[in-house]
Amino acid sequence: MKKQILLSLLIFMPWLSQAQYNRCGVLIPSQKSINKVKEKQSSINSFISIDEAANYIKRIVSQVPDWQQNFVLQERNGINNAYAHMHNGRRFITYDNLFVEALDYQTGTKWASVSVLAHEVGHHYFDHVLDREGSTHSKELEADYFSGYVLAKMGASIAQAKAAMAKLANPYGSHSHPPRNQRLAAIEKGYNTIKPRKVKPRKKSNPYSGNFYTQQSDVRYVNVQPRSNKVVQATWFFNNGQKVSENLHYSRTTSRGAKVYYNNYMQNTRRVELYFFRDGRVREKDIDLKKRRYTWFNFSRH
Ligand SMILES: [Zn+2]
After folding, report:
1. Could you tell me the distance, in angstroms and rounded to a whole number, from the CA of residue 238 to the centre of ligand 1?
2. Hey, is 84 helix, strand or coil?
3. What distance in angstroms lies between residue 44's CA and the mean position of ligand 1's atoms?
4. pLDDT tens by residue, 48-72
5. Taking the model in full, what pTM does it have?
6. How far apart are the C-alpha atoms of 168 and 109, rounded to whole Å?
7. β-pairing verdict for 90-95 and 71-75
8. I want to staple 80 with a disulfide (CB 3.0 to 4.6 A). Which of 28, 186, 190, 241 is the partner?
9. CA–CA separation, 136 vs 82, rounded Å?
10. Which residues pair with residue 274 across a beta bridge?
11. d(CA 106, CA 160)
12. CB–CB of 253/260 below 8 Å?
C-alpha cells in the first residue's frame, strides 16, 4: 500500500511543478532571475532601451534578402512574453524587456534575446499572424528555422543560436508547441543553410597497420605498415631477434572479403601471401611454388 501511495505521488509531482511557458513556448523566467535583472540594470546583458531592441529588429530584417518590413516595436513590461501580432494592418512585435533580459541572464548570452526577437520576426516573415488560429507546431518550427538562419548570418555560434531554446523550451512540447528537440533541430536546420557544419573527413584508418601476433615456434609477430593503396610493408620479428622486411603487393580480394597481399622471393620459387580479414584476423600462406605446397599461419592482434 505504501508503495502505491509513493507511486502516485511520483506521477503527480511533475504535474504540480509544471513550468509556465509563454505564447511562443519559451519558459517564463523565474521571479528570482527577473529580480536579478532588476537589481543590475547596467548589466551588459540587457537591452538598455527600446532603441537597442529596435536596432536588433532592423538587423534581423536586413539579413533576409528581398524583404523589407517596418515593424512597430512595443515594450510592455510585466507580460512575460514576446509576440508577433497585427493591428490595423501594421505588424507589431511586443516584448517584455524584463522577460528578455531575464532570458539572457538565465542563458548567459545576449544572443538568447536576439533569437527570441528573431523568432517573432520569423512569425511575421511567414505570415503566421494573418489568421487567428494561434500557434501550431509547424508555425513554431518555421519561426525557429528563421531564427537559426538569421543568427547564423548575424555571426552567432550554433550554441548561441540555440541557447534560449536549449535552456528554455518545453522539453515535452504541448498541443500548440513542438518539444524542445524538434525546435532545436529546426534552429540548426536554419543555421546550417548559412553555415553548414564542416564535416571533417574522417581519416581512413587502415585496418592492416600494427602488430599481429602468432603462436609459431620461430616468428613472434608481424608488423604491417600500409605504404600505398596497393602496397603494405610487412616485417617479421623472429624469436631469435632477427627481423625480415618485405613489401607485399595487393593481388585480390577473396569471396569472403579478405584482402590478399603477396610477395615472391627466392628467385620466384616461393611466395608469401597475407590475408587481411574484415574482422581483423590475418592469415599467412607460405607457398612453395615448385612443389605446389603451402602452409597456413594464423596471426591476431593479441
Ligand atoms: Zn512562436
Report:
1. 71
2. strand
3. 26
4. 578 888 999 999 999 998 888 888 9
5. 0.59
6. 13
7. parallel
8. 28
9. 16
10. 261, 284
11. 13
12. yes
